[in-house]
Amino acid sequence: MIRKTKKYDNIWLGLGSAVVLTILSFFGFYLINQSEFGSLTKFLTALQLTEMFSSVVSLSALPNLLLFFVFIWTKRNRSAKGVLTAVMLITIMVAYLRLG
């Protein structure tokens, strides 16, 4: 029997949406703290000086958990695999930032 794939169920969609959600979360964190830092450049500089950049990136990846469960609940397992792939790549990046 041939299994019909669901619409919007592919790894690339999950990977792309997880990366976009992480970036949007990072900028959301910036907008929340904009009054303290002003420009984005000052915000990034402050994160680097206080060695908090990797922590903020880690926190920015948390909304991907909700995205993962939405894909699981709607039985879009390939897209969920894409989200997991993106989270693994973000984890590797955070480990590199902390150790390097």
Structure description:
- Keywords: Membrane, Transmembrane, Transmembrane helix.
- The protein is an all-alpha fold.
- It has one domain.
- The protein is 78% helix and 0% strand.
- It is built from six helices and no strands.
- Helix 4 runs antiparallel to helix 6.
- It is elongated and about 60 Å long.
- The N and C termini lie far apart (50 Å).
- The model has no long low-confidence stretch (mean pLDDT 93).
SSE blueprint:
Elements: H1 11-32, H2 34-37, H3 40-49, H4 53-60, H5 63-73, H6 77-99
Helix pairs in contact: 1-4, 1-5, 1-6, 4-6, 5-6
Keywords: Membrane, Transmembrane, Transmembrane helix
Transmembrane segments: 12-32, 52-73, 80-99
- Structural class comes to mainly alpha
Q: What are the segments in which pLDDT stays under 50 over at least 5 consecutive residues?
A: none
**Count of alpha/pi helices:** 6
Q: Provide the number of structural domains.
A: 1
SSE pattern, N- to C-terminal: HHHHHH
State the helicity in percent bands. over 70%
Q: What is the gyration radius calculated from CA atoms? A: 16 Å
* Overall average residue pLDDT: 93
- Gross geometry: elongated
Keywords: Membrane, Transmembrane, Transmembrane helix
Transmembrane segments: 12-32, 52-73, 80-99
